Amino acid sequence: MTYKVAAFYQFAALPEYRELREPLRAFSAGLALKGSVLLAREGINGTIAGAPEAVDAFIHELAHGGLFGGRLNNLELKFSTAEAIPFGRLKVRLKKEIVTLGDEAADPTRQVGTYVDAAEWNTLIAAPDTLVLDTRNAFEVAMGTFEGAVDPGIRSFGQFKDFAAEQLDPARHRRIAMFCTGGIRCEKASAHLLARGFAEVYHLRGGILKYLEEVPEAQSRWRGECFVFDERVALGHGLREKDKGHGRDK
């Protein structure tokens, strides 16, 4: 059996997020799903896997069901497949932030950078006056990144604001194009830079995963593999799993 994997997030006001935890966990368990879901006052973030029809039912409930009352009708979604469920169990956790930056001024529900679709990304990052910035952790960057991208050298996303304060200058870096795995870290990072006075901040809509899904390998400026936070470890172009023993696409 081929299992379906859904990575998703949305920034949305969920003031009663604590009360949503158990109903969401029970609904997910009833579909025999496994994976990890984070709930916070600012929204939802997660990756789940299971039978294709079960994953579809889960996403439909998030976007259109009564549990969230239509507040998650603009989910950022990426689908891929796995030969085995890449999670050991189901976890629904409560968090202060769905992606931790630690800057209250960085509120993606108020302002974020300009979204750039995968088809337009190559043109943007090829421009000589564009600073291309990888917002992921150093070990992720080591596995793969875009040509010419700056590695901030951070161990966790919470350190990004320190990197920005020390290395980025609104007067010198007038156009910044940033990217991350699925797009969520860039939402926070772009909101942070805009709050600090940077004028032109762009980010890759849907992140690296959407780029690898949509851009043909022959036209790709991506080099290496994309780390994912599950037992598949890394994905390549077309969101294909990598052979763990030989580094080849399955």
UniProtKB/TrEMBL annotation:
Catalytic reaction annotation: uridine(34) in tRNA + AH2 + O2 = 5-hydroxyuridine(34) in tRNA + A + H2O
InterPro entries: Rhodanese-like_dom, Rhodanese-like_dom_sf, TrhO, TRHO_N
Residue stretches making up the Rhodanese domain: 126-220
SUPFAM superfamilies to which the protein is assigned, alphabetical: Rhodanese/Cell cycle control phosphatase
Keywords: Oxidoreductase, tRNA processing
EC number: 1.14.-.-
PANTHER family hit by this protein: RHODANESE-LIKE DOMAIN-CONTAINING PROTEIN 7-RELATED (PTHR43268:SF3), THIOSULFATE SULFURTRANSFERASE/RHODANESE-LIKE DOMAIN-CONTAINING PROTEIN 2 (PTHR43268)
Role played: Catalyzes oxygen-dependent 5-hydroxyuridine (ho5U) modification at position 34 in tRNAs.
NCBIfam families on file: PRK00142.1-4
Assigned protein family: Belongs to the TrhO family.
Entry protein name: tRNA uridine(34) hydroxylase
